[in-house]
Amino acid sequence: MSILGGFLMGSTVENIDINGSKVPIIFEQNSYLPIVSIQIVFEGSGELSSPVDGLANLSARLLNEGTKKDGSSKFAKKMDEKAISISAHATRSNFIIELNTLKSEYSSAIKLLNELLKDPNYSEKALNRVKRQKIGWLTQKESDYDYISRNLLSKILFRGTPLARDSKGTKDSTLKTTLKEIEGFLNTRLGYNNAIVVIGGDISKEAAKQSVANILKNLKKVEKIELENIKASNKREVKQESKKDIHQAYIYFGAPFYFSYDSEDQYKAKIASHILGASGFGSRIMEEVRVKRGLAYSAYAVLVRSKLSSYMIGSLQTKVESKDKAIGVVKKVVNNFVKEGITQKELDEAKEFLLGSEALRNETLSQRLNRAFEEYYLGRPLGFEKEQLKKIENASLEEINSFIKAHKEITKISFSVVTKGNKK
Q: Residue 243's closest CA among 146, 329, 136?
């Protein structure tokens, strides 16, 4: 049981009616601290829904510039005076607005959020400011070789699909973006009918529902966007990109993983991922790459299971002269993992960690609400993860090895390498 003890109630999901649309509210009351937190998730309205690369990201940045009436500074001052935080950001799948406030300032926070939604700062001054910030960020990323290698892997694994796009945008796309495009994006992506609301804290359910309805009534009805599920490439490609003044090889690797995000056998994938490369020291990848051979300070591999795609991804950094050896080791580790499976000792240690660390992953209000959102978003019943823990506890070596050996596709690994030297 969490250290918050009797102050906790479980998360619930309930629909409210907004202009004939059912809007889900994921709610948990928690009176341990006098705070309230709200997330409004606009499903399918993230970076991949944007007709122009970087438009969703730039739209979120502009929404963080306050209202047109007050401007950025005055609106920020209003929030600071009452310790209110309102921010927007875009993921690949969704557009998210977050609000955090003290319970005593809750009504003021809702008022400010309504003002922001009614009157975003659609001004050239605000747009130019966020463009400068974005170009500064993109300039920094030009020397972030880890970032470059990961993007290169996306282009290899997902060539010809939305997941291969420069969804954060480029300097050129940033400079060309207009206020009209941002206004059009926000008006067609932020709707009451594609919203999922996550709210929790020191507030009653009825008060939460009432304030959420108050917020969503400011929004229009929009066309819902369904993002397609995309399979990763199985072509075993190796792409290298050369950079000046680089002293290491930045290696990302990935492969297809034919596994559905809504499968009830998530616990098998979680155990397999943990042992292969998600657990740090003790994982197969770390043991072979760092401990035995000293090829890298850190290395990992995880089995991603999302609505957009399921795939294996991992990375490491090594000396320029060691890159080919490191690539060979990764291939060997994954091949042996699939061919031979795991040992009883590895399974026991994985169970001990996954079960023992569960309390730390479910300790805070935000963690519990995020988990409840993930369960709802992925079409799972609330409490799904608790049932998965029971399955982890009872998992046998035979069933986990049978699962691992059935996924030979993860041996079809592609590599992106950013390093010094000639392109290959």
A: 146
Query: 21-29 and 195-201: which strand pairing?
Result: parallel
| Residue whose entry in the numeric block shows the structure tokens 């290491």 | 248
Q: What is the rounded CA–CA span in Å between residue 397 and residue 403? A: 10
Task: Tell me if 419 sits within 8 A of 250, measured CB to CB.
Answer: yes
Tell me the C-alpha distance between 161 and 311, whole Å.
Answer: 15
Return the pLDDT at 182. 97
Q: Which residues of 242-252 are buried (b: 16+ CB within 10 A; e: fewer)?
A: eeeebebbbbb
Q: Is the separation of the CB atoms in 257 and 230 below 8 Å?
A: no
Cite the DSSP H helix spans in 259-413.
Answer: 266-273, 284-286, 323-340, 344-356, 365-377, 384-394, 397-405
- 356: amino acid identity, one letter: G
Tokens of 38: 């709200």
Planar angle of CA 407, 404, 265, nearest 5 degrees:
90
How far is the C-alpha of 154 from the C-alpha of 151, rounded, in Å? 5
Q: Compute the distance between CA of residue 403 and CA of residue 72 in angstroms, rounded to an integer.
A: 53
Beta-strand pair 95-102/85-90: antiparallel
Question: Which residues of the chain, if any, have pLDDT below 50?
Answer: 1-9, 423-424
For residue 1, what pLDDT is reported? 25
- How do 95-102 and 238-242 pair as beta strands? unpaired
**Which tokens go with 160?**
């010809």
Closest CA to 314 of 326, 306, 325, 324: 326
Is-above-0.90 flag for pTM?
Answer: yes
Helices 344-356 and 384-394, packing angle to 10 deg: 150
Residue 119 dihedral angles phi and psi, to the nearest 5°: -140, 65
DSSP string covering 223-264: ---PPPP-PPP-S--EEEEE-TT--EEEEEEEEE----TT-T
Question: 3-class SS at 155?
Answer: helix
CA distance 376 to 370: 10
